[in-house]
Design brief:
By secondary structure, the chain is an all-beta fold. The protein contains one helix and 36 strands. The chain is elongated and about 70 Å long. InterPro entries: 6-blade_b-propeller_TolB-like, Ricin_B-like_lectins, Ricin_B_lectin, SGL, SMP-30, SMP-30/CGR1_Lactonase, TAT_signal.
């Protein structure tokens, strides 16, 4: 299927309103993420990779860097590096410069896909490569629309989900078989298990197995294991992955990992198992030790950064532990006032972000805006040492509490629906299985030295399928 622009979803959603100066309203806007290519197969590129207001946008050989990663949204905006594609000074003149600028929703920043062209809403002019050139460094401008090759653009293909995403249509009943349920042990004998996530393509569960710290910095090595329920087999999928929390990407092609070994967020290609960095630092300062993460529909990654696995490495966060998001390669601080934030998950509709405060005994929630930013934090529940968590298709929250070895199940309003017991010291949970109704739980006894920990994987069948991200 071609991704040449021919009034596909982006165009349909925007064309009806863009030229009248109105904004798209309703549910959170969807996005397609990736490169935009033009004449000569060159990529639309932010000069110097800078996100300063006024930075010119140009053509350059495609290289896959963040300066060439664009988010094309149904509200008509096109953004990279946290800023929007903008016509300088909202000009309508031929030759007006195209630049990056703070997103503001004006016509100068709204674009309509039409027969391969990108029409600017404020001017009615088309995105144009100056001088019909494909040379590296060719600046982009607006110009009266034509059929020239320098006005032909190929946008990334959006990933379309059904209205309910991977969830079946509700309504849903009580998710628990009984108010005090008990999970069954699958297998133990692991040193410290964390971060389970379900890979639907292979019908397997990925999870992290951390070992005791080594070397002068006492950093904990960690492997990604793969469990195949159909055969009962466990294998080392990626050795020395260095991670804790895991999450399968929305396209199912990679697994994202909160990697404490490099104090970063990483992505591992599920085919090649090659590692790339998603977030290396915030404003030049290394994170403490990223712990858990979740992924929004537009690819925005949210993650927590306590200091549990920072070990003997220097603190660059001035004693604070935080919650962050990554969008378009830009890392933004959400909150650095929670002591030891841990588990993090999004509601199925993407409008609520839940964060467990391991050091506060509370679970918090944030409203999520259409652009992936978050609103004012509020208290959701008080629990005994919250750790990892997940949600189901009904919006119920499953919060592991390390101190009592349980999974607390809460409705979206915060009402307790019951608990699930699974050994001791429960660390994390994830839904999986062919129908999504199997809850996997990691729990056990930590090491007292020499990798003497005894953690196990547990499972229980529930009545409501889970949200996989």
């Amino acid at each position: 299927m071609t991704n040449r622009l021919t009034r596909r979803v982006f165009a349909v959603a925007v064309t009806a309103v863009a030229l009248s100066g109105l904004a798209v309203t309703g549910a959170a806007a969807a996005a397609a993420n990736g490169t935009i290519t033009g004449i000569g197969g060159k990529c639309v590129d932010v000069t110097g990779g800078s996100n300063a207001n006024g930075t010119r946008v140009q053509l350059w050989t495609c290289g896959g860097g963040t300066a060439q990663q664009w988010s094309v949204r149904d509200d008509g905006s096109i953004s990279a590096l946290g800023k929007c594609l903008d016509v300088a000074a909202a000009s309508t003149a031929n030759g007006a410069a195209v630049q990056l600028y703070d997103c503001n929703g004006t016509g100068a920043q709204r674009w309509t896909a039409d027969a391969g062209r990108l029409v600017n809403a404020g001017s009615g002019k088309c995105l144009d490569a100056t001088g019909v050139s494909s040379a590296n460094g060719t600046p982009l401008q607006i110009w009266s629309c034509s059929t020239g090759a320098n006005q032909q653009w190929t946008l990334p293909v959006p990933t379309q989900e059904p209205p309910n995403g991977p969830c079946p249509q509700g309504p849903f009943g009580n998710p628990l078989p009984s108010p005090t349920s008990t999970a069954t042990k699958v297998r133990d004998g692991f040193n410290f298990l964390e971060g389970p996530t379900w890979d639907a393509a292979t019908q397997t569960l990925l999870l992290s197995n951390m070992r005791d710290g080594t070397g002068s910095q006492n950093v904990q090595p960690s492997d990604i294991l793969r469990y195949t329920p159909a055969t009962g087999a466990f294998e080392t999928f990626i050795a020395n992955a260095g991670g804790n929390g895991l999450a399968i990407s929305r396209d199912g092609k990679s697994v994202l990992a909160a990697t404490h070994d490099q104090r970063s967020v990483s992505s591992y290609d599920l085919t090649t198992r090659q590692r790339t960095t998603v977030a290396a630092n915030h404003q030049g300062r290394l994170f403490n030790s990223p712990n858990d993460l979740t992924i929004g529909a537009t690819g925005t990654v949210y993650f927590t950064d306590p200091d549990f696995q920072r070990a003997n490495r220097p603190d660059q966060m001035s004693g604070r532990t935080g919650v962050f998001r990554v969008s378009g390669g830009v890392v933004t601080l959400i909150d650095d006032t929670i002591r030891e934030p841990n588990g993090i998950e999004l509601s199925p509709d993407g409008r609520t972000l839940y964060v467990g405060g391991n050091g506060t005994g509370k679970v918090y929630r944030y409203p999520v805006n259409a652009d992936g930013s978050t609103g004012t934090r509020s208290d959701f529940a008080s629990l005994n040492g919250s750790d990892g968590g997940t949600v189901d298709c009904a919006g119920n929250v499953y919060q592991a509490t390390y101190n009592d070895g349980k999974v607390n199940v809460l409705s979206s309003s915060g009402q307790s629906l019951g608990t699930i017991s699974a050994g001791r010291n429960t660390t994390n949970v994830a839904f999986g299985g062919p129908d999504g109704k199997t809850l996997f739980i990691t729990s056990g006894t930590p090491s007292t030295g020499g990798n003497t920990g005894n953690f196990g994987l547990y499972s229980i069948r529930l009545n409501v399928p889970g949200w996989p991200y």
